[in-house]
Amino acid sequence: MKKSLLVITILTLVISGLFAQSITFWTTETESNRMQRIQALATIFQAKTGISVSVVPVQENNMFSRLAASKAAETLPDIMEDGIEPLVLLGTEGLMDTKLNAKIINDFGDIYTGVKKLLYAGNGGYYGIPFHAWVQGIWYHKNWFDKDDLATPTSWYNILEAAKKLNDPSKEIYGIVLPKQADDYAEQVFTEIALANGARPFDAQGNVTLDTPEMIQSFAFYKELGKYSMPGFTTVLDALKGYLSGKAGMIFYSTYIMDDLAIRDVQESRIHNFDPQLVKNTGFANKMINVDTSSYGQVVGLGILNSSKNKTAAEKFAKFLMTGDNYIYWLHMAPGGMNPTRKSIATNPKFLDNPVLKRYGSQKIATIIAALNNIERFDFYKGKVVTQMSKLSANFVIGKAINLMFANNWTPTRTAEWAQKEAKRILGK
């Protein structure tokens, strides 16, 4: 009798093991402290569902080569987490389950419109599920603006008026810090300005359009704004330190600035000083307006692959990661930098219960995250990836154009003409 029970028990365990579900999850969050959080979530998920998750960290710079090798070996993951570019490129090759991704988005029902459209595959499908995001906008000393009765710096007109009014080089105070180096930061800032003016580097047919009237106007606005900027070929670090030290009225920056503004140790590591009122006195312009409305940002998504043999399990894991305390636990890896793409989480008291986010309060956090409704990028147009843009970015075409415009005092027209020729040269057109 005992032997029979033992045999039955062993057989039950063996059969359960054979049919136990497991999935592979690739993530670009490779830092050890973040991996610990993700492993903890995977353990909780297994305890609740019986589905084991193999978490595989992949360096962002190695993602494309790793994907190519795994595709050849037929060892692609069931679900992956990465920026929108790899997800879209995989999707255009038919490797993403666009219908299942869409089902998950629709089941949630509260994902911001702006982040959804960057992953839209057409015909109701999506290349991925928007997971978290950061946004860029203008951070400004609201107390300075109130004192001088200046309007919120969202429109081109208001931004320029504020930069003029606040600029006082004799006191080493400048209206704004504008990037002038040939780098990513210059392209990011220019992207928001150009998109607000309806200007793009490519049209719908893939033609280079860096010398259109709208683009020339964008370079002209950038150059005019440069008159009221901190002098020199300023970088992202110059912008951050300039704002924290009270030498700049406005800067363009992502939401990763939030702990610099709020946390003593972080702020003091930048400028050896701490202003406890800085969060209270800081405003955030979450969009830019001229002929269009835009904001710049990056979205990280989850994508379920067509090759997965465990799509139901992958769906459950995606929903698990984006629900309640699990989602908040992930987002708090980088409070402010990782913003929820679900409206219900953005207002959840547990999400706001964090040392960084508490300093801002629910209303200011809501204003910041609302920028996700207006995210636009040069490398995505009408739901399609503009693959040529990656070559221009890799060669810093826009950053170089801006740098040359200031270094050589070029006119906006000459700057646009140079950018047009340089883009065509790089693309072999």
Task: Provide an overview of this structure.
The chain has 429 residues and is of the alpha+beta class. The protein folds into two domains: 192 residues, Periplasmic binding protein-like II (D-Maltodextrin-Binding Protein, domain 2), CATH 3.40.190; 216 residues, Periplasmic binding protein-like II (D-Maltodextrin-Binding Protein, domain 2), CATH 3.40.190.10. A hairpin with a 2-residue loop joins strand 13 and strand 14. Helix 5 runs parallel beside helix 14, helix 10 crosses helix 22 and helix 21 runs antiparallel to helix 22. The longest helix has 18 residues.
Keywords:
429 residues, alpha+beta, D-Maltodextrin-Binding Protein, domain 2, 2 domains, 8-stranded mixed β-sheet, two-stranded antiparallel sheet, 22 helices, globular
